[in-house]
Design a protein that fits this description.
With 288 residues, the protein is an alpha+beta fold. It contains 5 helices and 7 strands, in the order ααββαββαβαββ. Helix 3 packs antiparallel against helix 4.
């Protein structure tokens, strides 16, 4: 009899323990499901309200894996500017010719342009510094009224335009180059500009990177003072490569059929060019 009682007690204890384990596992499963639902809802709200619907899913998940809500950062931009003398002269000029036929207009234009190129070469401009920037040929029409009072377009001739771009390091010779071209047949001077060569521009912009980052650092430090925060590290630095120097063209004009004497001793002076480099920096911050 005692043995049967003992066996019944042991069996009862086992059932109680098994039931308790089952309840514990059920609670954990419910808790896990609740946490999963909350995380899913938060993620869904973040995607729709913050990131929008146009960002790919894989990018969103990649960002969420790296996101740390306890991370404190400040984002600032910095810039630095320098001035430099230009080292490149660019002149855009050419010849326009008109004649009754296309062949005649083209022949006149070619003769004048060859004379201009020869004159430029005699002035010390290499043929490697001269290239065609635009060539066009198009018909010219006159509008007349016929006997019925209707306007008609009558072909009157052709115009040929051949524009050259001259790029040289002889920045002090702008006036002489224009005078030589005009005296030999050029009847268009579209643009004169002084610029920085690509190599010089790149070197100056690279040298400005450190100054731009220092500018960003100083801005961040000033902003953090009233917040009682301090910089403790750097998360990212972006250097903006779209460096566009400011060019002040001393001359921008078109001339049509002017005389040689109209361009005697053309005084054209170059000025300093300003170059700006911009950066964006994200700093880690913490309490002082």
């Amino acid at each position: 009899m005692d043995n049967r009682v003992n066996i019944a007690v042991v069996v009862g204890v086992i059932f109680v323990l098994a039931f308790a384990v089952t309840l514990t596992q059920s609670d954990k499963q419910v808790e896990s499901q609740v946490e999963s639902q909350v995380e899913s809802q938060v993620e869904s709200q973040f995607k729709s309200q913050v990131l929008g619907d146009d960002i790919p899913e894989e990018l969103i998940y990649e960002w969420l894996k790296k996101y740390d809500p306890s991370e404190q950062t400040i984002s600032v931009s910095g810039s630095a500017t320098a001035s430099s003398d230009p080292d490149t002269l660019i002149i855009v000029l050419g010849v326009e010719s008109e004649a009754k036929t296309a062949n005649e207009s083209l022949s006149l234009n070619s003769d004048s342009l060859n004379s201009v190129i020869s004159s430029l070469s005699n002035s010390g401009i290499s043929e490697d510094d001269i290239q065609t920037s635009n060539f066009s040929i198009y018909p010219l029409y006159d509008s007349i009224k016929d006997s019925d009072g209707n306007w008609q377009q009558i072909l009157n001739g052709y115009r040929v335009s051949n524009i050259l771009s001259i790029q040289t390091e002889k920045i002090d010779s702008a006036g002489d180059i224009i005078d030589a071209a005009v005296s030999s047949g050029a009847n268009r001077v579209d643009n004169v500009s002084f610029q920085l060569s690509d190599d010089k521009l790149q070197k100056i912009s690279d040298d400005l990177i450190a100054d731009a980052i220092n500018d960003a650092t100083q801005k961040a430090e000033k902003a953090l003072v009233p917040l009682k925060q301090k910089i403790v590290g750097v998360k990212s630095v972006i250097i903006h490569d779209d460096v566009v120097p400011y060019y002040d063209n001393p001359m921008r004009a078109s001339f049509d059929g002017f005389a040689e004497s109209s361009m005697k001793s053309s005084p054209i002076m170059s000025g300093d060019e300003e170059i700006t480099t911009n950066v964006s920096v994200v700093f880690y911050i913490s309490q002082q």
